């Protein structure tokens, strides 16, 4: 019986690629009867880019693996991990653009007439201004001794333009004017996004984050609530929040990204795995490419990019652990001192007798021995890559 089951499973495994290939051939043939461009893509379960010439333009669209047209009519297209977007005509924008074009054509006719009148006006103004300049220069030449010095006082016609305009105005010749050029709106197209997963899995998707190489996560909305998904639109933070979840640019050479839920920070890695839950007051990076976390009590710890604890959150200062290199003794001294200082403090509600039993010379020495071992582990986690064998 087991042999029969194994044989059947093997046959199914062998037949699937054949069936898929046969389906692709059939769908491609069907699409090529209508479109001049038919390109099959294996990603996201399979889909087809389609296109054809309409007038002077090539228009694009895409189909699912069964050949069902999801969108068509884009002048341009861009492909991303989880979606494709097309530069599609928008009826409302197209109407506004057509109205603008009609008005702009009228304005161009007005401008041509205005330009003709302007040239005539400027030509006449220059003649009058030159006459005024010549008249003034004759006076200067008659009062200044020597032709050399007289040349320094001669007037240019430009200095008489305003007077020339005043004279023309008295003559009833007004300066031509024209209304402002109509501002061009969008040409009637806009980028429209379509997910490869159909029907679209979310009510809203922040496609700006999906396009941005510096982001690992994007905001999504489902059933009226917000969450976070990765580049393939796989949900990472469930859609259970009333407001979009805050995210930052990716950090540590694009290997991680911070997110914030209700004022608390967490971190995901590049694959979308949550390595630090959203439970920290602040998260920052260190000079040696680690994650420094701060809790509400302002105590600090350090994690690596896998979410592994390097230093527990019991320190008030971790600068000693962010140096590019240092000796183990220097590191261990700072590590043990801070740990012991916190450990030996008497608790707010701790009875003196209990505290004296917990903290004495014998327990202190044992604590130092234990902490030195922990410091060794932390030191290796921080500097193992820098050590030479």
Folded structure, characterized:
The protein has 389 residues and is of the alpha+beta class. The protein contains 8 helices and 19 strands. The chain has helices at residues 2-32, 91-143, 147-150, 161-170, 207-211, 328-343, 352-358, 361-383, and strands at 37-41, 47-54, 57-64, 69-74, 77-79, 83-89, 189-195, 204-205, 218-222, 225-229, 235-241, 246-251, 256-261, 264-269, 274-280, 282-285, 291-294, 300-303, 309-315. The strands form 5 sheets. It has a 4-stranded antiparallel β-sheet, with helices on one face. Strands 8-9-10-11 form a 4-stranded antiparallel β-sheet. Helix 6 crosses helix 8. The protein is flat. The model has no long low-confidence stretch (mean pLDDT 87).
Approximate strand percentage? 25-35%
Q: What distance lies between the first and last C-alpha atoms, to the nearest angstrom?
A: 56 Å
Can you give the helix content as a percent range? 25-40%
Rg measurement, Å = 38 Å
């Amino acid at each position: 019986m087991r042999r029969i089951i194994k044989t059947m499973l093997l046959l199914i495994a062998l037949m699937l690629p054949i069936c898929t290939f046969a389906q692709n051939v059939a769908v491609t043939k069907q699409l090529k009867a209508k479109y001049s461009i038919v390109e099959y893509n294996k990603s996201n379960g399979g889909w087809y880019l389609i296109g054809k010439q309409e007038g002077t333009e090539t228009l694009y669209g895409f189909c699912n693996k069964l050949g069902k047209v999801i969108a068509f009519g884009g002048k341009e297209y861009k492909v991303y991990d989880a979606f494709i977007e097309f530069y599609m005509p928008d009826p409302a924008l197209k109407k506004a653009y057509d109205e603008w074009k009609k008005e702009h054509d009228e304005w161009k006719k007005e401008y041509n007439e205005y330009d003709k009148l302007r040239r005539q006006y400027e030509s006449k103004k220059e003649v009058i201004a030159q006459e005024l300049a010549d008249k003034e220069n004759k006076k200067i030449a008659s009062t200044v001794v020597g032709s050399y010095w007289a040349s320094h006082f001669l007037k240019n016609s430009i200095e008489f333009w305003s007077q020339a305009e005043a004279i023309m105005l008295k003559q009833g010749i007004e300066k031509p004017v024209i209304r402002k050029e109509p501002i061009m709106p969008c040409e009637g197209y806009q980028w429209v996004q379509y997910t490869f997963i159909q029907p679209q899995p979310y009510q809203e998707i922040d496609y700006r984050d999906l396009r941005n190489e510096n982001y690992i996560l994007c905001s999504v909305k489902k059933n009226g609530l917000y969450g976070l998904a990765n580049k393939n639109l796989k949900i990472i933070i469930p859609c259970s929040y009333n407001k979009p979840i805050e995210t930052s640019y990716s950090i540590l050479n694009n290997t991680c990204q911070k997110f914030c839920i209700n004022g608390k920070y967490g971190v995901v890695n590049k694959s979308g795995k949550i390595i630090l839950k959203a439970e920290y007051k602040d998260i920052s990076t260190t000079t040696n490419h680690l994650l420094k976390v701060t809790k509400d009590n302002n105590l600090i710890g350090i994690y690596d990019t896998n979410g592994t604890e390097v230093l527990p959150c019991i320190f008030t200062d971790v600068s000693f652990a962010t140096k590019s290199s240092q000796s183990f003794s220097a590191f261990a001294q700072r590590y043990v001192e801070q740990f012991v200082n916190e450990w030996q403090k008497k608790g707010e509600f701790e009875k003196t007798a209990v505290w004296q039993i917990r903290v004495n010379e014998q327990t202190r020495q044992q604590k130092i021995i234990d902490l030195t071992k922990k410091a060794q582990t932390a030191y290796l986690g921080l500097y193992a890559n820098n050590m030479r064998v």
